[in-house]
Write a structure and sequence with these properties.
The protein has about 70 residues and is mostly helical. The protein is built from four helices and no strands. The radius of gyration is 13 Å and the shape is globular.
Length: about 70
């Protein structure tokens, strides 16, 4: 696993947690307004600071996430 893959793995973990936060723990079924796939596609291209905007992490937690990715 190269550096980018390690950082991507850390980010994927956080994205899954955020997706769960956005769905309030509910499964996204066929009748859901936003499917799990749509949520992941949206998060894939958003800037990292959006994690703070969505309220799924604090600014300090974001800084720690970036530090973990840089150390990977």
């Amino acid at each position: 696993m190269d550096l980018d893959e390690k950082a991507a793995a850390i980010l994927r973990e956080r994205m899954r947690m955020t997706e769960s936060d956005l769905s309030n723990g509910e499964e996204a079924g066929e009748d859901a307004a936003v499917s799990a796939e749509m949520s992941m596609a949206m998060m894939r291209y958003m800037p990292l600071r959006a994690f703070v905007s969505f309220g799924s992490m604090t600014l300090r937690e974001l800084e720690q996430l970036v530090e973990r990715m840089n150390e990977a």
